[in-house]
Amino acid sequence: MEETIHIPVLKEEVLNYLACGAKKIFVDGTVGGGGHAKAILEASKPNGFLIGLDVDDEALVVAEKNLDNYRGRFILKKSNYAEMAKILMELGFEKVNGILLDLGLSSLQLGTPQRGFSFLQTGPLDMRMDKSNSLTAAQIVNHWPEFRLREIIKEFGEEKWAVRIAKKIIEYRNKKPIETTTQLAEIIANAIPKKYWPKRIHPATRTFQALRIVVNNELENLKQFLNQALNLIISGGRLVIISFHSLEDRIVKTTFRIWAKEKKAKILTKKPVRPSEKEIAINPRSRSAKLRAIEII
Fold it and tell me: Are residues 205 and 276 in the same domain?
């Protein structure tokens, strides 16, 4: 487990598009276990500086340990990247040279059953990245009305079987509460006719994605960050965002295109950068990653 926690997705591409170097200041808005942060600090020796943000307390503990050799060159803060402007102001930074967001789940989160992100191991239906938040996946599946379940599964999971899945969830919870990840995954799998199960992913994948997005307010956080991003990066600085599903990627792509049209930024990735087959073999989590980058004008 410890060996997989810190594998950063598209590491060399991130360093290249961020244009890492000495005397530069970077923000890793989703620092996780510190994989990308460590690579950025190494590539910006001897005096590059990094601010690492995350809402996950457990991730910040791991990152602190992982970055121990770079003490004095980084600050870690518990914060959502949507609050980045406020945090930078509090820390006394007006603008930075580069910002990275890796919007995927970390191996630490996926590999800890108690966090409730994975349907491959039995755990409570939690899915909170920030444990101080009150809303959990269990509350949604056990208490939200059928029409709301149907809406979020269709909209945020892009799941064509949303109607059947929502119906099955209601039928099941009318008999007893849905308490575990594997329990929910089985309900979802039974709602979809087996001949229509997706070939490359588990039938519960899209519904779990939808629940996680709602629990963590993920798309709104991304939009809120993008509304302030241009004011946080110096002219010639870079913004790199790695997304893992089409909803996030669509928001990033559309925003970057608007900025390019308005001559506020230059798109560095005409098409999203994808991991190589070699990287996917080493780190299967990277399979659906898409990296987009811009340079601020």
Answer: no
